[in-house]
Amino acid sequence: xxxxxxxxxxFWAVQRQRNRGVIGLFVVVIAFLALYAYLFPGLFxxxxxxxFTQNWFPLALVAMAQTLLMMMGGISLAIGPLVSxxxxxxxTVMGTAFGVTGAIVAVLLAGLVVGGIxxxxxxxxxxxxxxxxxxxxxxxxxxxxxILPRPGxxxxxxxxxxxAGHTPAAFGLLVVIxxxxxxxxxxxxxxxxxxxxxxxxxxxxxxVAVNRVRIATYALxxxxxxxxxxxxxxxxxxxxxxxxTPFTLNSIAAAVLxxxxxxxxxxxxxxxxxxxxxxxxxINVMFFLGFPPVAQYIAxxxxxxxxxAIPQFTGRWRRS
Amino acid sequence: xxxxxxxxxxxxxxxxxxxxxxxxxxxxxPAFAASNCIKGDRKPPYKVxxxxxxxxxxxMKQTEGTITKEVADxxxxxxxxxxxxxxxQGNANTQIQQIQSMIDSNLDAIVVDAGSSTALDRVISDACxxxxxxxxxxxxxxTDKLTAKxxxxxxxxxxQAAQWMVDRLGGKGKIIIMNGPAGVSVxxxxxKGAQPVLDANKGIQVLTxxxxxxxxxxxxxxxxxxLFSNPDIDGVLSxxxxxxxxxxxxxxxxxxxxxxxxxxxxxxxxxLWKKEGVKGWATMQPNWLGALAVYTAVQALxxxxxxxxxxxxxxxxxxxxxxxxxxxxxxxxxxxxxYSDFDTALFDKLLAQK
Lengths: 320, 354
What we know:
Oligomer: heterodimer
Radius of gyration of chain A: 20 Å
Number of helices of chain A: 14
CATH architecture of chain A: Orthogonal Bundle
Shape of chain A: globular
CATH architecture of the largest domain in chain B: 3-Layer(aba) Sandwich
Structural class of chain A: mainly alpha
Structural class of chain B: alpha/beta
CATH topology of the largest domain in chain B: Rossmann fold
Strand content of chain A: under 5%
Order of helices and strands of chain A: HHHHHHHHHHHHHH
Number of strands of chain A: 0
Helix content of chain B: 40-55%
CATH superfamily of the largest domain in chain B: Response regulator
Shape of chain B: elongated
CATH class of chain A: Mainly Alpha
CATH topology of chain A: ABC transporter involved in vitamin B12 uptake, BtuC
Largest sheet of chain B: 6 strands, parallel
Number of domains of chain B: 2
């Protein structure tokens, strides 16, 4: 009884501490969402909300995938090609006898396997993740081009309309994924992510199966990435072997915006999600403000710098 | 004779049916519009969106120049009110999002150069459902659920270039083929168009092929190393303008006599072609496709029946008319494309073809 009551405040204390770094970002994101809603009141209709969240969804997934790795001190430069791989597998398998179910299984398996292999190479061969995933990005991108040399393939209209039609199914899926992530964090493998990222040797000596944690995390990250590919295929109604390329950089940008450290052990999923949401809503806000393209490049840079700087300033202000 | 007759007969029949259906339609709805997507409920002045995939390349900047010029003309006539430009920075997912925003803000027309032949299909057909005139040019989408597509024929590009090369070499010789990036449809299509001509002329031996970005530096680098291994070349079948400029620079630096070469209206290539006195041939992807797209969208919104696909004939530059292009070169950026002239009369002629 007493342990329970002492655990509750500790939980919230931890949450408060984790939120501290991202509260500035939350304020920025909410401000942008409010501005967007003001410029485009249609956001509050079911269709408007659905379309907006659909454009955010794949970026949210890859931001989570990248964050998983960065919290563990890893990184992946193969996120983009892996999104493409997921998309082309979906678009080629759905038209065959395996159907939609077979395609979903194939896409998710591909993510788990590619991620798992990457994780195994990084953990057991002790090669730097950045090199392994850079090489991996060429291999995976090549495989995607072999499977589908040109954009094409088939996604049944029903599947596209279910995931990316005029309903917020994608948003619902994201909520489910976030809940699953919370549950996963309560397992030894989930707890190990922070431990292995913060201090791998210390974690190992305290009984964390560091290698197993790493492989599981890479596999999960791969799973989220190919899931993003599956969604992109549904959203576009087709497969495109190079559609994912920009996601590599954007996933890193979203994670870093969200306060996830390159050095591992620090960062939160909610931060990364907020970061990805900012990157996404920014595009729409600039459109509705009527910014010319050249100004958009500059504004984008300023917003990102601002979003990183504001939390720093507020932190300094709070300390003083 | 027979087939000709039956064609005439069925043609007459179809025309009859067409006339009947037009009559029936006109009776039921006075705001009759013939073009795809057009519902006839949008009134001038129109708001036009230009959904660009990537604004940085010079070709795109010049294309945007023709679009803004066309919009300025149409503004003077009072048919266009606004031009909204987006840049997806090469990201097809961003382009989807921006076209969605154009739908959300209820623009009347969207002209689009697609970042992926398939990725935009669904958002474009959503726009079409809303009665927005969607005109796609240059890099095309797969869906036909839009007002019109405008383009030159990339297969034809490759075929004509290969045919010129075969004729120039008298059907016999060793050539190198320079392609754009692998997996890019323009590059693949040009190469595919060249193949039947090469198959039909066995005297032409393809020594090797390159795949590089459409930039001078990588093409020059590739050609330089190829010249070491294959000094004995009779022709360069280049399927891109910057590639040809890179090739000629490589020949020049190596002190190798330039050989007959094909290419595109890239200014640097045209200048090197003249300067080196090479035998050359070039065609172009005219930048005014952008202006034509805006014009087509406005015509469709005004209730004119525009064709769903406009095949724009390839303008050809050869030794006889290169001078007329180089005369105008000062009006174009140094790393730009010298395109053929355009005006409303040309556009009307292109839109009149069926």
